């Protein structure tokens, strides 16, 4: 026969407080254990995933280097065939005979200029000062100065300089033409990253060009989002880049 224990209301209150505190501590310990389990899972998965991703990155780099190296030889042969080597071209597209496979190799560049560009700009400004000040020439001055405007890094825009060259040729003014020539010759772009775009014809989509995903981000694109536009319809800077 069990012995019945009688406690006061105050003792019962203390007992309840003890139970609540004990439950609180047990819950805290359980959460701590869960956090430790979570962190261990993270450590284990990272230990497994990162080496695989590093190995994949090295494989991509190896294939990338080999591809650029192999096609460098192709470009050398092309130069022999056509009789000259293309200069200032930062991308090349190759298509097979059946037009079922296409590869674009290129280098992203950042515009840069030598100090001779400032000499050319000064010559352009001197040419502008020599013009009459009627409304027609004022419009020309405004257009030229707009093309000579610089970006936040203090660089001219290469495409605007090409427009300026056309304007100089149309003017037939030797001083203007010479000034723009000096600016163009001072162009010194800096190569940043090499990129590769690989594509193939997909019979299931009416022989449309389809991009071959070359980055972790793109490998799980839905098929309808992989269809590649024709080269002349592509926006600049949208190349699918292979990892450096």
Please, could you describe this protein's structure?
By secondary structure, the chain is of the alpha+beta class. It has helices spanning 9-82, 116-129, 135-147, 158-171, 174-185, and strands spanning 91-95, 101-110, 190-202, 208-211. It has a four-stranded antiparallel beta sheet, with no helix packed on it. The N and C termini lie far apart (81 Å). The model is unreliable at 232-244 (pLDDT under 50).
Q: Would you tell me the structural class of the helices and strands? A: alpha+beta
Point out poorly predicted stretches.
232-244
Total number of helical segments?
A: 5
The sequence of SSEs as H and E is HEEHHHHEE
Let me know the number of strands. 4
Strand proportion, as a percent range, falls in 5-15%
How confident overall, as mean pLDDT? Answer: 84
Distance between the termini: 81 Å
Helix content: 40-55%
Q: Which sheet architecture does the biggest sheet show? A: 4 strands, antiparallel
Global morphology: elongated
Which sequence of strands runs across the widest sheet?
1-2-3-4
What's the gyration radius in Å?
34 Å
Pfam families: DUF3164
Protein name: DUF3164 family protein
Region (Disordered): 222-244
Organism: Bacteroides acidifaciens
Key traits:
alpha+beta, 13% strand, DUF3164 family protein, Phage_B3_Orf6, 244 residues
SSE blueprint and pairings:
Blueprint: H1 9-82, E1 91-95, E2 101-110, H2 116-129, H3 135-147, H4 158-171, H5 174-185, E3 190-202, E4 208-211
Antiparallel strand pairs: 1-2, 2-3, 3-4
